[in-house]
Specification:
By secondary structure, this protein is mainly alpha-helical. The chain has helices at residues 9-26, 45-55, 67-70. The radius of gyration is 17 Å and the shape is elongated.
Length: 72
């Protein structure tokens, strides 16, 4: 029995197959402000947007970075 958290080649193959089928279905429904694990999202885009909002004079900007997404 293998330990949890160590994917096999078959696991990765199945994950990619599901991703390729499901991503085109669900991705368009996500907010354009959502950046975590998005295919066409750069890691710097949220910071650039935040800075633009501040320059526009917005008083409140919520900037949340989770440990998992910042190390991806």
């Amino acid at each position: 029995m293998r330990q949890l958290g160590i994917p096999t080649v078959l696991d990765r193959f199945i994950q990619q197959a599901l991703l390729q089928v499901l991503q085109p279905i669900f991705d368009p429904g996500f907010s354009s402000h959502s950046h975590g694990f998005r295919r066409e999202s750069e890691r710097t885009t949220p910071s650039l947007r935040r800075n633009a909002y501040i320059q526009q004079g917005r008083k409140w900007v919520v900037d949340r970075i989770s440990r998992r997404s910042s190390t991806a």
